[in-house]
Amino acid sequence: MPKEIKDIKNFLNIARRKDAKSVTIKRNPDRATRQGNTKFKVRCSRYLYTLILADKEKAEKLKQSLPPGLNMNLSINFLVICICAILLAPQKVNSLFEDQVGKFDWQRQHVGLIDDSHQPSSSTNRIIVASHENVIASLDLSSRKLGNYIYYFYFIL
């Protein structure tokens, strides 16, 4: 529940306290009389204090006499949020992929349809395969995984 303050001097004292976080200013035009009022709100640790002024000149003077740091807190927070949003926005990224580092080679996973294979008589753990996609590879049969190659050649014709 906001506390309403009637005196400008008390409002300025509250606005200059250490626990005052922000000041918001809202102008409410009155359509019937062509005059309106201006609401000043100060958020403190315990209460939200409000001051309502009908005079435009007094409202302008009060606005100029408010501490500048109170309005800056909101704009700095907004600026930080905008910068974070820009930095985290998806954009074109130039980075190393796993196949460029050597952890994963997508070409080795895609040997293709094997046309011919040969198992040397001296070795029972290896098989040499050739595919119709110009790949010659020596597979290690001891681990029984497709990705373990002893050597791998991709011929460009």
UniProtKB/TrEMBL annotation:
Cellular component GO terms held in the UniProt record: cytosolic large ribosomal subunit
EMC1 first beta-propeller domain boundaries: 96-143
Gene Ontology terms describing biological process: protein-RNA complex assembly; translation
GO molecular function: structural constituent of ribosome
Keyword list, A-Z: Ribonucleoprotein, Ribosomal protein
Domain of life: Eukaryota
Coiled coil: none
Stated family: Belongs to the eukaryotic ribosomal protein eL38 family.
UniProt protein name: Large ribosomal subunit protein eL38
Species this protein is from: Adineta steineri
